[in-house]
Amino acid sequence: MSSLRLAILFLLLSVSGFSQQAGGTKYALIFAIGNYPPANGWASIASLQDVGYLRKTLLTQGFQEENIAVVADTQATMKGIADAFAALTARVHPGDVVVIHFSSHGEQVEADNDNHIDGLDECVVTINAKSPSRSVDYAKDQANYLRGHVLGDYLRALRAKLGRNGDLLVTMDDCHSGNGTRGSARVRGGAPPLVSAHFDPSRHHNSDSSMLSREAAMNAAAPLAPFVVFSATRPEELDIETRDEETGVEMGSLTYAVCKAFSGLSAATAYPSYRQLFARIESIMNVKVPAQHPMMEGDGVDRLLFGGQFVHQLPYIELSSIDRPNRRIVLKGGKAAGLEVGARIAVCPAGTLDTTRITPLARGKIVGATDISAMAELEGDFAINRPVDAWAFITTRVYSVPPVALEIRSGPHSYKPAEAAAIGRSLQDVPGVRIVTKAPALTLVKGLTSDTLKVSGNGYVFGTVRPAADNSSDLQLKLQNYSQYMFLQSLSCQLPGVQVDIRLFLWKPGGIPDTAATALRMKGGRFEAHDGDLLTLCIRNSGTQLVYVNVLDLQPDGRINAILPNTTNLQVPITSNQLALPPGREYWLPADDHIQIAPPYGTEVFKVFASPTEINLENLANTRGGVDPAHSLTMMEQLVRSSYQGTRGGTPTSVPSQPDAATLDYVFLIKPKP
Hints:
This protein is an alpha+beta fold.
């Protein structure tokens, strides 16, 4: 219930000091409500699965087990939640770091105070709360919902105890009522608002997060800890659960993204901030649940993570079993983690932060892999007996474009069963395409003159094709485009000392950025562009070494365009050798050039590549993987090229785990002009 953040923020926002010196103890309080009583009308959700993932992430970030409290299921009553906050507030000291997490259903309930934004309060659905479909006594039933302003009071008291040098992160993995969802995944909310018989529907309209800035201006300065709120969705959206592709475990989409984002912020990100963490969360969720748009708000978004106490943990994979006589181990991660057959690993003691500073216990090669597990054959003896005592680190990844899960919709208004079967047979020998009836990535829908491929997660049109029942060649090409698009979206690499930031600005004639108008387009940490907008961009080298930058544009319909370098579509051609940035320098588009926004609408991604050596992805994008025979490709160029070469069924691309370029995603939204 992402819009719960609004009520929280109205009560929390205040002018507070920008201190990065929080050096106290780290505490976490996790609320997980998943097994709701069936009689109350709320479906069970995977909230308890979130706890293990969060605990693991927090432990790698230096939180101690005794300082991580969990309030789950039957404990999560109104009193249980209040008591947990009171106990935590009594325990913390000024300068401490606190993480609060909610995994639950979310709901909107008729407002009970004068802070009426839309006539409704955003609420956490506690274990005893009855859904609107089961409620017979509004006055009694509304009391079991944790309203935003009540939670805000708890958090304000906590911030006051933490003081200006404290640090507070709140993550909300739930939703409230919306217009419905597409797909088969479970939703954390989705019921209509709970209101009394006297509720005035005319007062119900969407809240505008821009009101937060006005609220902040009205608050007086107070010695409160800075805070950041990450919400799974916008106010009008639903929170869809996802699965960890490495384990197959169902879990909350924000929880998944937060845990993945922390593991992806390695030592290459010298000074990670909450804003940088959120950029990774956006990128991850855009791949897993494209219908959702996470939000970031608060007065500490540019602070260093945990007051500067972020722990640089290299991503690792746990072991599930050990076969010492045959020198083999099974890992809790598979193809989706880059563990195709041929990938290489180093096995180190559990708790290892950086493999470059120790000698591995063993090295090995992947000899078998599924989507969620892999078997490695080790070189030499292996002294570890228990799987929990070791972690595996990937030293050479093997990438392949993921298969496409396609649903062929049949029924009275779509394909006849015989037509659907014929299309399925025409695709059965196409590598990397799976015909499914549940959890599809794409849905093929029959039309009068052409057929349509829709992204199942959000209903966006990915593309139209010639009637597939007559000839599937056009469909096969579109499926290949989708695979390549998803591969590039998922690609994430880092390099020590290589770090860039990118921002888009509304453009004024002469290439002048309109910073004031741009600020008004920032909604919950994400930029909104409108059809017809003219934009300019700025890329800053915030790392420690010179880098060359490239930018690819990934459209919602799967089209991929070269933004930089660009020798064909700009007034002033920009070549790859012009895109060298020394540390601390900025690059702006030339004054005579700009980016013009046009449909398709939806979530757009600018994929930024930064490398200490000159790279040029423009030709690869414009020729769909073609190259100049005289040009020797860098590793990153080879990897991008492979996504055009149909690696779904061919030879996967093997690259060092330490690539020669870093990547960054800038995610923004394109909407019709109001």
